[in-house]
């Protein structure tokens, strides 16, 4: 490879990385959608496919709400809808989980091929018993997971997503800024698509079924 070709390849990868990071950070995915449509023109209402080079998922070792280890092995064999949030979230998290619960029910017989995983980015307050009760309020099949702050940050960095704990008020209450995107992982445990906010149950279910049929 010539020096010019190598430089062009490096620039191209940096450009795609910038597009992905910007899309996830904004929660809208418009730039990513434009790139995705050139690569794989599926008829999707809201989901945006990841380019193949960006699909590997970071190595994880988290803890599920039942106290068991939750690793990459748990992301294989089924499709996964992955959402980051926290149980004290006043609006985005409960609204998104309610949409995911509705979409999950619309999957019919394909429901058995899908799992919904909620990753808490507030391990200080989200104890496992509380986390389990929270996610299973929306659907008994939903799984809550969390970990130490450093492992959560490693996962966020590996997925190029952002979250940040805000300063606590005089009563010790605080919020956590985080993405409103839902990540779709395929049965190989790799990133497959990003679903950007705002979310609608019918669109979420329809897009997931379309991707499952095309996979």
Summarize the structure in words:
By secondary structure, this protein is an alpha+beta fold. It has a single domain, classed as Glutaredoxin, CATH 3.40.30.10. 39% of the residues lie in helices and 20% in strands. It has six helices and ten strands, in the order H-H-E-E-E-E-H-E-H-E-H-E-E-E-E-H. It has helices at residues 3-26, 30-39, 92-105, 128-138, 149-158, 201-214; strands spanning 47-49, 61-64, 69-71, 79-85, 114-120, 143-146, 163-165, 176-178, 182-185, 191-195. Strand 9 (182-185) and strand 10 (191-195) form a beta hairpin. The chain is globular.
- What's the order of the H and E elements? HHEEEEHEHEHEEEEH
Radius of gyration, Cα only, in angstroms?
18 Å
The CATH homologous superfamily: Glutaredoxin
Roughly what percent helix?
A: 25-40%
CATH topology: Glutaredoxin
CATH class identity: Alpha Beta
The structural class is alpha+beta
- Beta-strand percentage range: 15-25%
Largest sheet: 8 strands, mixed
Question: From the 3D coordinates, which CATH architecture would you assign?
Answer: 3-Layer(aba) Sandwich
Number of domains: 1
Unreliable stretches, pLDDT < 50, 5 or more residues?
Answer: 1-18, 24-31
